[in-house]
Amino acid sequence: MRNSKIGVIAFSSEIGAVVGLITASLHQLVSLLHEWAFAPPPNTHLSAEVHTSTVPVILVPLIGALLLGIARRISPRDGTHAIVDPIEANAHYGGRMSMRATARGWCSRT
């Protein structure tokens, strides 16, 4: 597949479509959460000058931060696999890295 330009284009198109659907779904989810948490007037966006009570403005980010902290605390941390540097992977392993090492390396930078 790597040697076929049409195969690469087809694969890239499929990945792009999947990512587009995921992005649109997450956008809808965020919009629903904004409507549920802040109850803006109909046909307005949260970024518009909407007067909301102070309680949701303080509590919603606080609850989100607590949920993120709990998720990070209970997520499994497997320290047995070292993160492979992309340059080292290219030099020693033919450019191959596991998805877990790639995700771990990306998450540790953010």
How would you sum up this structure, described in words?
- The protein is an all-alpha fold and 110 residues long.
- Helix content is 66%, strand content 0%.
List the helices and strands and how they pair.
Blueprint: H1 5-38, H2 54-74, H3 86-92, H4 99-109
The N- and C-terminal alpha carbons lie at a distance of 32 Å
Number of helices: 4
Estimated radius of gyration? 21 Å
Q: What's the SSE pattern?
A: HHHH
Number of strands: 0
Largest sheet: none
Mean of residue pLDDT values: 80
Could you give a quick summary of the protein structure above?
This protein is mostly helical and 110 residues long. 66% of the residues lie in helices and 0% in strands.
What keywords describe this structure?
0% strand, mainly alpha, 110 residues, single chain
